[in-house]
Amino acid sequence: MFTRAEIIKKLRENITLHRPIIGVAVGSGFSAQQAAAGGADFLLVLNAGRFRAAGVSSLAALMPFANSNELVFDVGCKEILPRVKNTPVVFGVCATDPTTDHDSLIASIIKNGFHGVNNFPTVGLIDGVLRSALEAEGLGFDREVAFMARAVDAGLFTVAFVFDPLQAQKMARAGVDIVCAHLGFTAGGRTGIKSALPLEDGLKLAGEIFAAVDAENSRAIKMVYGGPIITPQEADFFYANTGAVGYIGGSAFERIPAETKIEEITGQFKSIATLQKENESLRRELRKKKNYDDIVGQSRIMQQMFEIVSKVADKDINVLVCGESGTGKELVVKAIHSNSPRFNQPFIKVNCAAIPETLLESELFGHEKGAFTGATRQRLGLFEMAHKGTLFLDEIGEMSLSVQAKLLRAIQQQEFQRVGGSKTIKVDVRIICATNMDLHNAVAQGRFREDLYYRLNVVTIRTPPLRSHKEDIPLLVNFFLGKIREKFKRDIRRLTPRALDALLAYDWPGNVRELEHTLESAAVLCDHDYIDIQDLPAHLHLADAVDATPRSKIIANARQNSAMLEQQLIAEALAKFAWHRGKAAAYLGITRRTLYNKIKKYGLEDGRSGQ
């Protein structure tokens, strides 16, 4: 158990040694462990962290989904305190909760083993009519000041968020240990706010706040939170230009980086003095992060897949990614490349199903001028373009046996000759393949070379179908709604419980891609800022009629509606690419042969004028 005096003594030692004080707001036991391992000086358990851990924006912390204090007690007592023994833990208090009195709340905080308190959620983030109403009812910022003053008297370590000089003056007068200039919710990331206070304006505001603190209580430790500060360099900029001696962050540590990077990023913030020499490493990590963020899932099966990706990414071995269409095979391949030593070298993709067999060899290995009719100039192949980098062979199972033989020689010897040429060209290329075909079965049937199969299949990564990890659907919904808001400029924020239940009940034969297209369609067609069950395709809410309708009829209706959706998606893709079947097939994630069959099945006609 840390006393207030012990915590303050340790923080002042940091200041003396010119080390920044780092506070991390966490939403789970795992995040807390990683932040503590990275060197955080204290942890804050805030209701916003719990929402971040669920994939929801921190802004949800200000909405009445649950009693904030009960939520913080639950996660703090069950997850944080049992797992973090050597770092002080600060309780995020909703001091304006009218259902409890301050003395009882402070007694519970001390009894449960928390070392300090912080005023969050805070009315400082609320303005307008609602703020005026809260202030009129005695539930405004002054109530938070009164709570912090009682916490000081009770011997708790205190961290106060303030938003202007007057609030800073009040908190400093109350005797809090840390006054933190809250610059707004952290910008950046897919679920973060889209704009934030510019750095220059943030410097000015922080300076005004700290001047008010010094005039009232020069012993108070001054820190900054969030807003435009995302990187260690931006935090260091504030240290150098204001009286701040530390930074408190939530999204910058927990949401914007992947959770597996919390320890590393926290350590970077902690060691900003030496970090200047590691800029290239930081840029590499930020580039990697993007390609991990696009693969959404916290289920056990997805975490197992992430673990395999992490293990093979920096090993220079060939990888085979298998899975049904729409399960995100290409995202996995990009993540492997981005996390490999080849990350800053070319990443070249070829869809083996989208290129006719007669052209695939030339596409892969290039050709010399005059090698065949139409070869009017020399052309470099994809193997040459991918030199030192990664060559991604998508739909490898569609490759003909003759091209397979030439591919095998190129992989074994790391050399080849262009079509029509005699010069041997040496390359250094990592091969990653993907397929929705059972290649082992294709080998048994003689449709795929056994020696090539074992050469490509050093490690297999299987992307799971969505039906096997439906617990990730709420996370995927939040992820896709964020993309939809940017793509269609529709402010769609949520699904109704009934609509979400319908998504969870469906088996998603088209996997994550089908889920994304379904949400896009619903968002475009709905007339409100949420998606209800009637906005979803009919086959997703047939479950409502299960008791009244024979099962066979339900299945038949579902198949009919699914076919209608498939026909619509295919027609839209063909129109999008002006009936270029190769591009449309690649966009839909199916083979060209499958696309031809679907066009014939649904009787689709080329809609281009005069063609």
UniProtKB/TrEMBL annotation:
Q: Name one GO biological process term.
A: regulation of DNA-templated transcription
Keywords, alphabetical: ATP-binding, DNA-binding, Nucleotide-binding, Transcription, Transcription regulation
What single Pfam family name could you report for this chain, choosing any that match?
Answer: HTH_8
**Protein name according to UniProt:** DNA-binding transcriptional response regulator, NtrC family, contains REC, AAA-type ATPase, and a Fis-type DNA-binding domains
Where's the Sigma-54 factor interaction domain? 295-524
The organism of origin for this protein: Sporolituus thermophilus DSM 23256
Give the superkingdom in one word.
Bacteria
Citing just one GO molecular function, the answer is: catalytic activity
